[in-house]
């Protein structure tokens, strides 16, 4: 895409501050029980024309890729920026799931989701690049050009997200046991109310 030649295409990245352990526990519970298509954002990478949001949904690593501004193009449909959770189209690809708008499969924003397990950042990045090449998804192709500086930043954010997700998983397995020892009379499921909004696919 021509917009990658402009100064406004420079990618800016940031880590999204995470909640405290108890707030995160409640948020994860909401994700699993109330919002099937929700995910917790961990990192963000964006420029004037599009955005990547890297996050987690239970034990899956999620990447949402979207366009948010036209560059010498006809005005495009809103689905390129945000997906409607009531009309998600799922496509299984190598080791992952790819979600797009069921009415605008080729043009819409894309959500790439892969189970973490023992996967490495290198393998997940390779799988994502394979999806870019094999799947006819315009937004994904435009935001993942074969440019070394773009690929490097995407890979770095995948790696940081996987590491954060694995660290959170290890913490969640350890803390409840410690809580039972330190606070034997406090029910483990009691968590404070959290009014923070969850990030959703839509």
From TrEMBL:
Origin: domain of life: Bacteria
Biased composition regions of type Polar residues, renumbered to the chain: 1-10, 17-26
Disordered as annotated region, ranges: 1-29
Name of the protein in its database record: Uncharacterized protein
Organism listed in the record: Anaerotignum lactatifermentans DSM 14214
């Amino acid at each position: 895409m021509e917009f990658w030649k402009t100064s406004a295409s420079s990618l800016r990245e940031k880590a999204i501050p995470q909640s405290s352990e108890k707030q995160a526990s409640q948020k994860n519970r909401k994700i699993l029980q109330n919002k099937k298509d929700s995910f917790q954002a961990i990192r963000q990478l964006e420029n004037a024309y599009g955005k990547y949001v890297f996050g987690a949904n239970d034990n899956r690593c999620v990447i949402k890729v979207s366009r948010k501004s036209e560059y010498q193009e006809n005005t495009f449909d809103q689905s390129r920026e945000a997906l409607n959770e009531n009309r998600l189209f799922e496509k299984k690809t190598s080791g992952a799931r790819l979600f797009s708008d069921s009415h605008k499969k080729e043009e819409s924003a894309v959500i790439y989701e892969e189970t973490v397990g023992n996967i490495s950042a290198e393998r997940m990045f390779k799988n994502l690049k394979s999806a870019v090449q094999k799947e006819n998804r315009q937004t994904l192709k435009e935001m993942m050009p074969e440019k070394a500086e773009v690929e490097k930043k995407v890979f770095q954010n995948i790696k940081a997200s996987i590491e954060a997700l694995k660290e959170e998983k290890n913490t969640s397995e350890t803390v409840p046991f410690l809580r039972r020892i330190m606070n034997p009379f406090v029910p483990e499921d009691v968590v404070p109310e959290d009014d923070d909004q969850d990030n959703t696919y839509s």
